[in-house]
Design goal:
The complex is a heterodimer of chains A (about 500) and B (about 500).
Chain A lengths: L11 H16 L1 H21 L1 H5 L4 E10 L2 E7 L1 H27 L5 H20 L3 H19 L5 H32 L17 H13 L11 H4 L5 H28 L1 H5 L6 H19 L3 H22 L2 H32 L10 H4 L1 H15 L5 H15 L3 H27 L15 H19 L2 H14 L1
Antiparallel strand pairs in A: 1-2
Helix pairs in contact in A: 1-2, 1-5, 2-4, 4-5, 4-10, 4-14, 4-19, 5-6, 5-10, 6-7, 6-10, 7-8, 8-10, 10-13, 10-14, 12-13, 12-18, 13-14, 13-18, 14-16, 14-17, 14-19, 14-20, 16-18, 16-19, 17-18, 17-19
Chain B lengths: L6 H18 L3 H26 L5 E4 L10 E4 L1 H20 L1 H7 L5 H20 L3 H20 L5 H31 L4 H7 L7 H17 L8 H8 L2 H27 L6 H26 L3 H21 L3 H32 L4 H4 L2 H4 L1 H15 L5 H14 L3 H29 L16 H23 L2 H17 L2
Antiparallel strand pairs in B: 1-2
The chains are: A mainly alpha (about 500), B mainly alpha (about 500).
């Protein structure tokens, strides 16, 4: 595929889509949905267009505004890590749009135009994060993403939703203002803050300063949901399920771990951090988050909340992998971003399909649902297996690389954490899967239901297939990530 | 001499001369039109002079041909040019947007008087910023104060009288303090021209009257600028003033006093008084920090939009004073840039209040619930302007916050304290802004809420929406391309720290 549009214009595609959606909504719902779909397709095609070039080692960068603040430009760049995140978000947006149409119509939601508009804006912001060329630009789009997802989280507009949305916004904004912003300003005050292979802070900062700055980043980037700044993620589950699926399993949370990865690789530099004595805590925080979130997930009785806590744990896999600071683990971190995205979006799609078809939201209600919704239950099963990390799913591949990376530096904390967490993940997923297939059906609000609308089934089957495919076809991601590290190491 | 050379004088004379014409207009619409034209002319002149000084030049003008230091000199440099743009811009936009609001709140027959007082206030504020003469500043200060007492009290709100009386007493004390200080300086140096004072002060800088003068001048101006804890007159004055006046005064009035204070303290006292820098810093920094937090807390507890915005001003003025109290170039740049950015955000905020009151009579929260459903554009503009008040990246407010935090980082350990206060108050800003956002979008409309809604005329509303859109757009524009105001602020800060003397 050839690039058909300069990469800096890609985030504008969803924004043009916003206009199309608004105009389409004046005609009728079908035109509006078509506008969403076409926009999503165009975005995906545009980012895919750059994949071959980036894999061959080409880099693109552009300065949009020379000086927003003295000496600080608004700069975008396209490098493998960002390209991968953009491809992930862009492609899954297409699948998610198909799903959304089924969900929003099947559920007879109100304010659907507003929903599609802010969805497109959120994707634009996520693409901006993917292409950010310096810390300032990253922060700018990070905040845009926080604000543009707020109307999606608070979509329902009842009292409970507003309260949850308040937690969502409160945690994300306060962490970013209190910690992330000072960190960004700090970086820009001692360097030019531009992301560069190998890092830029080596030799600029030393000793405890490094640990402090890393701490500001890790906890300031609240979207990565490292404990104790994870509270917003379960709160965000009040959103319509497509939002939970694409944003709170892929775009938003991945923007968090992606930002952390980018900061570690391109600002600090892996080698530089590896030599520091004040950054070891990051590993323990990630390990703690993984274990505790799994324990909390076991206690959940609501499907979406369980998935939310599972996401918190899985995100910290990425943080853990990053903080192992060996080449293979960094590859594992990136692979896990993709693998988890496929698996978790499948799980959320299944949860939404079950809600639309059967109006069931609690775990105990799911017993025997596999017989009525075989496609959905099968997809759910594949997603769950991927979360646990069993072949032949994507989750196994990434876990393999993270473990291999941990062995490279004999990091037994990481190894032990992964083993324990695999067990815990199986503990909360397998009983659900078992009861879906073999349990005795429980009478729900909808008596005699079948599968969810076709659009939803297509979407969740696609992502389930991707989860399986990724086991075999993860090569390109690995190549891209290794390029990053070749530059970095 | 061609007309351009008279630019500094015209800046004041145009609104001053236009004021009587307003009274002569029998029709309220004509009076409004005169005020708009005069403000527009003043704004164009301000933009013009900004063009002249943007390369570091200074426009000087000897009033009546009497050369300084014997006569009264007018002087426009980067700092004053920025202020004249803020003042005349605020006046123009408030007038354009406020035609309907003025009709709602003021008796038609009194409108010519009102607009004439408005122009006098405008002339006074502009005069303060462009004159280079200490006593002349006092004269213009009195003109602007007396005129603003009138326009603040002009509204239908009975409580406005009490608020204005408080403002009048406090304002007079402030002005008197300033006059006492200037008198003492005149006694010791025999001159009133600011530059001349700065030169001659050196000989007498160890004399007690000079210390006393510095104290009186600084405190007097702090009172007029509503620096904590001398801010008590301000929230009620803003709250009970007619909406059109709040939008104008809140955007610029206190900043003008801060301007004079910074001029005096940095250009006149700083080079001459030993240890003045530290005194200024130690005196104002704690006050600024308390102001930032307490203002934001009260704003977060308010149940009325205008009250909320007024208390938010207490907090935001704290940011300006805080930047100044760092006494570094970076700090002063952030302070001056925030004058501009805050004028955009707060002027915009009061425009929202004005629009809301047009439809729902008052700005109490109970009345405004669910505004977003009936007037989505006003609510959307509030979201943008609210983000600017918080300092969300991509808005003007973010630029000043970034500059302030960068300036604080230079201070080492003290900087950490400053940064933590700044971020804490940003969080409080999130609270008070989001309270309104939730109110606009999620709260249900009160039953039968707006009974005595005035009839709005289409053209007036169109104008209002245009101005509101313009201001909201400006908040974003100057958050992404802050080049011009930042350059002026940087120049002004350099000049204050001794470049120009």
């Amino acid at each position: 595929m050839e690039p058909w549009i300069p990469f800096q214009y890609i985030p504008l595609i969803p924004l043009v889509g916003v206009v199309a959606i608004l105009l389409g909504a004046r005609v009728n719902d079908n035109v509006r949905e078509a506008a969403t779909l076409i926009t999503a397709l165009m975005t995906a095609l545009a980012v895919w267009g750059f994949a071959p070039a980036v894999m061959e080692g080409q880099r693109f960068s552009v300065t949009l505004l020379d000086e927003v603040l003295p000496g600080i430009p608004l700069a975008l760049q396209l490098e493998p890590l960002g390209a991968m995140f953009a491809i992930l978000a862009g492609s899954l947006w297409v699948v998610n749009s198909v799903y959304s149409i089924g969900y929003m119509r099947g559920n007879k939601e109100k304010n659907q135009t507003r929903f599609y508009v802010f969805f497109a804006v959120s994707i634009a912001a996520a693409l901006g994060i993917a292409f950010a060329g310096n810390a300032f630009t990253l922060f700018l789009f990070y905040e845009c993403l926080t604000l543009s997802t707020y109307p999606l989280v608070s979509h329902k507009g009842d009292e409970k939703t507003i309260k949850s949305a308040r937690i969502y916004l409160g945690v994300l904004i306060s962490t970013s203002i209190c910690l992330f912003l000072p960190a960004v300003i700090w970086v820009h005050s001692v360097s030019d803050g531009a992301f560069a292979a190998g890092g830029i802070l080596s030799g600029v900062l030393s000793g405890p300063e490094v640990g402090l700055l890393l701490g500001l980043f890790v906890f300031g980037i609240g979207k990565a949901a490292v404990m104790p700044v994870h509270r917003w993620l379960p709160a965000a589950m009040v959103a319509p399920t497509p939002v939970s699926a694409l944003l709170h399993a892929v775009a938003v949370v991945k923007a968090g771990v992606f930002s952390i990865t980018k900061v570690v690789i391109y600002l600090f530099g892996v080698d530089f951090l590896f030599a520091q004595s004040t950054v070891g805590w990051m590993l323990y925080i990630a390990a703690f988050t993984i274990i505790v979130s799994s324990l909390v997930a076991i206690q959940q009785t609501n499907l979406k909340r369980m998935l939310a806590y599972s996401t918190i744990g899985q995100l910290s896999y990425v943080v853990l992998a990053v903080s192992v600071l060996t080449p293979l683990a960094e590859v594992g971190a990136t692979l896990h971003m993709v693998a988890h995205a496929f698996g978790k979006i499948t799980l959320f799609f299944a949860a939404g399909a079950i809600y639309v078809a059967a109006k069931k939201t609690e775990l105990y209600q799911l017993a025997g649902i596999g017989r009525r919704m075989p496609w959905t239950a099968a997809a759910f099963t594949i997603g769950a297996i991927s979360m646990i990390g069993v072949p032949p799913t994507g989750g196994f591949v990434s876990k393999w690389y993270i473990l291999a990376g941990a062995f490279q530096s004999d990091n037994f904390v990481a190894i032990a954490t992964l083993i324990v967490s695999t067990g815990l993940t199986a503990t909360y997923f397998l009983p659900v899967v078992y009861s879906m297939w073999f349990g005795k059906e429980i009478e729900g609000p909808v008596a005699n239901h079948g599968e969810a609308p076709m659009a939803m089934v297509i979407a969740l089957t696609t992502t389930a297939a991707l989860t399986l495919l990724f086991f075999f076809l993860h090569g390109p991601v690995k190549v891209m990530e290794q390029q990053v590290l070749l530059g970095a190491l | 001499m061609n007309m351009i050379d008279h630019l500094p004088a015209l800046q004041v004379i145009v609104p001053l001369i236009s004021a009587p014409f307003c009274i002569l207009m029998r029709n309220h619409m004509l009076a409004w039109a005169v005020a708009v034209v005069a403000s527009g002319a003043a704004f164009s002149l301000a933009i013009l002079s900004m063009g002249f000084v943007s390369d570091g030049a200074t426009l000087t003008y000897a009033m009546g041909g009497w050369e300084a230091p014997y006569g009264i000199a007018l002087e426009i440099d980067a700092f004053s040019a920025l202020l004249t743009v803020i003042i005349s811009g605020a006046s123009l936009l408030a007038l354009l947007a406020g035609a309907a609001s003025a009709r709602q709140q003021l008796v038609d027959e009194k409108q010519p008087l009102f607009f004439s007082a408005w122009l006098l206030a405008l002339a006074g504020l502009l005069g303060i910023t462009i004159t280079a003469d200490a006593f002349n500043i006092f004269v213009f200060m009195e003109i602007s104060s007396l005129a603003s007492y009138v326009i603040i009290a002009a509204g239908p709100h009975r409580k406005a009288l009490g608020a204005v009386f408080k403002y009048l007493v406090m304002g007079t004390i402030g002005a008197t303090f300033y006059l006492i200080g200037v008198g003492l300086i005149y006694m010791m140096t025999g001159t009133l021209n600011l530059e001349d004072i700065a030169l001659r002060l050196n000989d007498v800088s160890d004399q007690r009257p000079i210390f006393v003068a510095a104290g009186f001048i600084t405190i007097g101006l702090a009172l007029k600028a509503a620096v904590f804890p001398l801010h008590v007159w301000m929230p009620n004055a803003y709250n009970y003033a007619p909406h059109i006046v709040s939008a104008f005064i809140a955007a610029c009035a206190t900043k003008v006093s801060l301007y004079v204070m910074m001029r005096f303290d940095f250009m006149v006292f700083q080079p001459n008084l030993v240890g003045h820098e530290f005194q200024f810093s130690y005196f104002f920094m704690p006050l600024a920090l308390i102001a930032i937090l307490s203002g934001a807390v009260v704003a977060a507890l308010s149940r009325d939009l205008k009250r909320l915005l007024a208390w938010s001003s207490v907090s935001q003025i704290g940011y300006i004073v805080l930047g100044a109290s760092l006494t570094t170039e970076a700090g002063l740049t952030s302070a001056i840039a925030h004058m501009f950015n805050h004028a955009l955000a707060k002027g915009g905020g009061f425009l929202i209040a004005m629009g809301a009151a047009l439809y729902y009579t008052t700005t109490r929260f109970s009345n405004l619930a669910g505004l977003g459903k009936e007037h989505p554009w006003i609510a959307a503009a509030f979201v943008v302007i609210g983000c600017s008040l918080i300092g969300v990246p991509g808005t003007a407010g973010f630029i000043s916050k970034w500059l302030l935090v960068s300036a604080a980082l230079e201070q080492g350990a003290l900087g950490v304290l400053i940064i933590s206060v700044v971020v804490l108050s940003s969080l409080l800003a999130v609270v008070y802004v989001w309270k309104v956002v939730e109110l606009f979008y999620f709260a249900p409309r009160p039953e039968g809420g707006s009974s005595d809604v005035m009839q709005v005329r289409k053209p007036e509303m169109l104008l209002y929406m245009l101005v509101l859109g313009l201001v909201a757009g400006a908040n974003i524009w100057f958050g992404i391309m802050p080049g011009e105001p930042l350059a002026l602020a940087g120049q002004a800060a350099q000049a204050l720290l001794g470049g120009s003397l």
